[in-house]
């Protein structure tokens, strides 16, 4: 009367069915345990790190693959340890590859967030499965976009600021903590801090009235440039120059167009150029020859191998670039041996021993 009760006298096979059910539930239970071990981070194998946004981020204890969501981040990872670079923001050019670890050019191109609506390829990013994403704090990407993508893919995000050259002292230190490479980080941050102090000491001694006016020429025709308040031109004031194009930038990307007539009115004492096409033709153009910097042959093409020394991307190479620029502007005040310093820098930051031929090509 009280319903079906399993026990003596119950229906045939019921006891065996119950045993099978218990075994099945045990199997399901064990499957959930296995699933949890695979899918849930190992708390014992994780740690907390505070990024440059002040956020506490949980990261793996051992990190073997790191994705940089913009070129400055990618370059920073490369300087710390090329072996942990998970992928590229853009294909490596042959002139860059000559001064880089050969394995890096074979990495997948993931893309990234670095202006003009560009975003990473999420399928490639998911396939690469980096342990951590390094993202630029401040300029080209909003926290919401980065964190939404990272959360969707299960990748922790560490924010690092690159806007100012002085940020690299902390950036290298933080990367050392992240990758358990504190000694390497101390070497790079120590070099950076030393350079900034030595440059500042020289520039502080230059009276404002003696500081040189500088025009930053971008593009094949040299008629794109950046405002003096743009982070793209930060090296000019650090090296004691005065950017003639004085304005507030319209956006973070820059490359603002300017007329040759306006450059003539500025009549800069020095021109910094990005493109070889411009420096190859500027001295033959009668219009440009009327400008003081061209007349005195103080037009300098910015070195760019393997990464640009000045801008685009504004990477750690600016630590060498600011020395080069100060030497170009005031060789009597900053009489550094750029061949020796370039060799030292490439060895320390890039792991490259420059031959005499390569050195000439880098500095040409």
Number of helical segments? 14
Q: What order do the helices and strands follow?
A: HEEEHHHEHEHHEEHEEHEHHEHHH
- Give me the count of strands: 11
**Portion in helices:** 40-55%
CATH fold name of the largest domain: Rossmann fold
Structural class: alpha/beta
Per CATH, the class of the largest domain reads: Alpha Beta
Q: What's the CATH architecture of the largest domain?
A: 3-Layer(aba) Sandwich
State the strand order across the main sheet: 8-6-10-11
Q: What is the approximate shape?
A: globular
Biggest sheet details: 4 strands, parallel
Rg measurement, Å: 28 Å
Please describe the structure with a list of short key phrases separated by commas or semicolons.
three-stranded parallel β-sheet; 364 residues; 2 domains; alpha/beta; four-stranded parallel β-sheet; Rossmann fold
What is the element layout, followed by pairings?
Blueprint: H1 14-39, E1 46-50, E2 56-60, E3 66-68, H2 71-80, H3 94-97, H4 122-128, E4 132-136, H5 143-153, E5 157-160, H6 167-179, H7 182-203, E6 213-217, E7 224-225, H8 235-238, E8 242-243, E9 256-257, H9 260-266, E10 270-273, H10 276-281, H11 292-295, E11 299-301, H12 318-329, H13 338-350, H14 356-363
Parallel strand pairs: 3-4, 4-5, 6-8, 6-10, 10-11
Antiparallel strand pairs: 1-2, 7-9
Helix pairs in contact: 6-7, 7-12, 12-13
Structure description:
With about 375 residues, the chain is of the alpha/beta class. It folds into 2 domains: about 45-195, 3-Layer(aba) Sandwich (Rossmann fold); about 205-364, Nitrogenase molybdenum iron protein domain (Rossmann fold), CATH 3.40.50. It is built from 14 helices and 11 strands. It has helices at about 15-40, 70-80, 95, 120-130, 145-155, 165-180, 180-205, 235-240, 260-265, 275-280, 290-295, 320-330, 340-350, 355-364; strands at about 45-50, 55-60, 65-70, 130-135, 155-160, 215, 225, 240-245, 255, 270-275, 300. Strand 4, helix 5 (about 145-155) and strand 5 (about 155-160) form a beta-alpha-beta unit. It is globular. The termini are far apart. Residues about 1-45 have low confidence and may be disordered.
